[in-house]
Prior knowledge:
elongated
Amino acid sequence: MATFPISRYSLSIAxxxxxxxxxxxxxxxxxxxxxxxxxxxxxxxxxxxxxAQIVDGDSSVMITxxxxxxxxxLIYKKPIRxxxxxxxxxxMSFSTNFSFSISPENGxxxxxxxxxxxxxxxxxDGSSFGLTPGLKKRGTRVLAIExxxxxxxxxxxxNGNHIGIDVGTLVSTKVKNVxxxxxxxxxxxxLYSWIDYDAETKNLEVRLSDSGDVKPSAPLxxxxxxxxxxxxxxxxxxxxxxxxxxxxxxxxxxxxSFNLRSxxxxxxxxxxxxxxxxxxxxxxxxxxxxxxxxxxxLAGLLFGxxxxxxxxxxxxxxxxxxxxxxxxxxxxxxxxxxPVEFAYEKIKVAVVEPTKDGNK
Length: 360
C-alpha cells in the first residue's frame, strides 16, 4: 500500500525537475557574428539603427560615421529574459565577446547595452553614446558598459580612457582606468572585450585586451548586480551603441558573439562563465545555434530523467527503512538443530558398612 504514494510523489518531483530543466534550455540563446553579411538572413537577426552601416565588404559594422553628432546602434533583434526571483524559474547568465576599434578623435566611444523593450529605438542624440533620449524615459531599466573616450565632468568621468558600468544613468557606478593595463581605447587599433554575468554570484565582469588569442584571467572591472531582479520577466535587447559627440570619431565593430545560459547545472553550460578563448587574432569561435540548442535540450531530458529516478530511489529506500522500524512483529532467528552424540560408562560403587565398635 505504501508503494503507490511513493511512485506518485517521485513522478511529481521528476516532472518538476524535467519542467525546470526544459524551460531553462528553451530560454538559452547563442549566436556568433564573425562577419556581417546582410544577404544571409542578416535583417531577421540584426537591426542597424541610426547611422550604423555595414562596411568593408560585409566584414564589419561602422556604428558612427566620420561626421559631427553621428550616432548609431547595433541590436540583436531576438529579446531575452533574465527572469529569476522564483525557484521554479531559472536565472540566466550571459557571456559576450566582441572586437572593435575607435578612431583617435574625441568622441564618446562605444557602449555595450542591455535595453528594455520600451526603450526608444530610433531616438538618438550626438552625445552620451546616443542613449540620452531613452534614459530620460526608461533610465532605471538600462544597463550600459561604456568604453569611454571623452572626459565629461558633468557625469564625473575620471579621464578620457576608462571603462564604466552605468545602471539607469550615465554616471558610472564603477569605473576603471584603461591606462592601468597600458591600453588606449581611441588608438584606432582593434581591441577585444569579454563581458560575463554570473546569475548565481550576481557578479558582472569586464575584460579588455589588444589580443584575441587568450581571454585575460583577471577582470579589469567587477560589479555586483542582480539582473533578474532588475528586469524580472521583462524582455530586453542586447547590442552596442555609440556617438561621435562634437568630433568625427568613428566606431567599428568587427565581430560579436553572445551566449545566454541557465545557471543549473554547470555541466550543461555550452560555455563556462570564465572561458579561455583561443583563436587567431580577430577571429572568435563560431557557435552553431541549432546544434547547440538540440544538445542542450537532450542534455536537459537526460538530466531530468536521472534526477527523477534518483529521487524515487532515495524516497523508496528511506520509506523501506522507516517501515521496517515500525514493524510490530519480530521473527526470531532460527538455528539448525543437529544431533549430538554423548558417551557414557558404567561405574560400580561399593558401599562398606561400619562395625559396631567403629572399625571397618
